[in-house]
Amino acid sequence: xxxxxxxxxxxxxxxxxxxxxxxxxxxxxxxxxxxxxxxxxxxxxxxxxxxxxxxxxxxxxxxxxxxxxxxxxxxxxxxxxxxxxxxxxxxxxxxxxxxxxxxxxxxxxxxxxxxxxxxxxxxxxxxxxxxxxxxxxxxxxxxxxxxxxxxxxxxxxxxxxxxxxxxxxxxxxxxxxxxxxxxxxxxxxxxxxxxxxxxxxxxxxxxxxxxxxxxxxxxxxxxxxxxxxxxxxxxxxxxxxxxxxxxxxxxxxxxxxxxxxxxxxxxxxxxxxxxxxxxxxxxxxxxxxxxxxxxxxxxxxxxxxxxxxxxxxxxxxxxxxxxxxxxxxxxxxxxxxxxxxxxxxxxxxxxxxxxxxxxxxxxxxxxxxxxxxxxxxxx
Length: 379
Known about the structure:
Strand content: 5-15%
Structural class: alpha/beta
Strand order of the largest sheet: 2-1-3-4-5
Largest sheet: 5 strands, parallel
Distance between the termini: 25 Å
């Protein structure tokens, strides 16, 4: 989990950024600019900083940072980027742009790994976590995956935010005949509309101002494997048309090129939106929907599989012990019953955050009082 320091004077902005970034899976710390300390930053090992203003001290830390300012200007942007900022955003903050920049900074870059160190199959197996639970709802999902995975049929995964759609996609890839090939994911909502075509199909050198070298897109990177297109419902209509062509003809063309590149990719898409409603509103192409949803899989919300909560809590406790260096703790029966009765609007992602919070803040065991005290946001 990437660690982000939010350095902002205004408390309201700090809280908004913290809530959204934590919801998206980042670990955050908030502070005022006056609290910035090189020693503290070094000790806590931040992966990125979101700073509310240009600050010379931030640039000296050697940590990638993004500037957010209410008084944006071309000169300010040029100066910030010259000083070393990764991006320069103005308020109100475009959260999709911020998330895209943070993920670009914090996600591991591709490395060339010697074949003797690890095979593609080993990398694929290690990347996927198990689907936790034995409720009828999740057993149905697991059964669908087992039947569908060996084929090359496209799959459309639907479900609310935080239900585990990416986990289902990875599990499906792991069980497929493409398990030794790449699993490449792209979040269509996190990429600015002007960059989505280049991100998916790549570009040639000189195709646009910042295209200083040729770049392969996600379709080419996933050749022979699986391309997971998350939040497909947020893709622009122009990009949808190009994705449809790629699916129909199994070939793409990079931005700035008139040559076609043949690709062999299994596309697994996911969305939290009602695509039928988006089609009716004119926001999504019906022909693309039918291309993507050969096999639909709906991931149930946590409130429809509450019997799985004890197993999930146990799983997240083990993860917390490993990630946060905390001691193992027992969950009292009353505390577990209370967890099972919560609404969980954020689904499994919210449950994981709550378990981490309880593991860090509670005493030798997790009691009902701990749940009441530390989980007010979840109630």
